[in-house]
Amino acid sequence: MKIRILGPLEAESDGVRAVPTAAKTRQILALLALNPGQLVPVSALWEEVWGPTPPPSANATFQTYILRLRRVLATALGGPDGTGSARQLLATGHGGYLLRIAEEDVDAFGFQRAARAGHEAFTDGDSELASRLLRQALALWRGPALVDVRAGSALRVHVVALEESRLLATERRIDAELRLGRHSELLPELARLTKRHSTHERLYAQAMVAFYRSGRQAAAFDLYRGLRRRLIEDLGLEPAPQLQRLHQAMLAVDPRLDATAQGGPPTPTFDLYAA
180: which DSSP letter? Predict the structure, then answer.
């Protein structure tokens, strides 16, 4: 059974889909998939589905949800032993349930492995490898995580963590590609990202450097001024010191800004002027 959560929820076995249509059953499948091979207590599943105050009929209703989920799995597993296979796949444990799948069967864990390898390559100074690995990791995403699943308290925590990891992988991939001199190629993507994340200073630092190195210094200064205005108006804050020093370096035409393959340990773009 392969399950994908980096986008709409998808599950399949040998090409046969196994995604329930009912909202609460989808929540249960998603939470079990995010804990592959691990027992998830019934209390945690109840809280995901109903919040802190389950209804009086929770026990019987929950058993119905499990039965429906097993039926969907049995249909996908097929054959005369589909029902038995579904009970083995969605197993009952002491005080909970577990989905007998491996981390390799869930796309979120494949993303995390590839992203970790990409971060390590960047730290080791191999920008080419970092770019390739992080692009492979990010290619697993098909949209916002669990975009078509109503998330309770537990799923919200997982979704937020995954989206933060996705953004960090994107930032580090851009750092690697700026070091490789691909600033002009990155401009359209950075324009989209800064528009979507309108106060994200790390992305703005990357966009400023990309515009500056592409000979569009005025655009870099416009980005800084727009960000500063929003930070002051919305949060009552000045840009971070790193970003202020980056802006000053651009005004002073600091030659270090033109170096796309800096020697020494690799430095994220936001930290070029950390001190």
Answer: T
| 79 pLDDT above the threshold of 80 | no
Phi, psi of 110 (to 5 degrees): -65, -40
The predicted model scores a pTM of 0.91
For 115-141, how does the pLDDT look when each residue is reduced to its tens digit (9 = 90+)? 999 999 999 999 999 999 999 999 999
Q: Phi, psi (5° rounding) for residue 55? A: -70, 165
Q: What residues contact residue 107 under an 8 Å CB cut-off, 6+ apart? A: 3, 4, 5, 6, 140
Give the pLDDT band (50/70/90) at residue 263. Answer: low
Q: Evaluate whether 207 touches 223 at the Cβ level (below 8 Å).
A: yes
Q: How many CA atoms lie within 13 A of 225 on its CB side?
A: 7
Which amino acid is present at 265?
A: P
What is the signed CA dihedral for 70, 76, 77, 80, rounded to 10 degrees? 90
Residue 6: partners with Cβ closer than 8 Å, 6 or more residues away = 107, 108, 111, 140, 141, 142, 143, 145, 162
- 3-state SS class at 4: strand
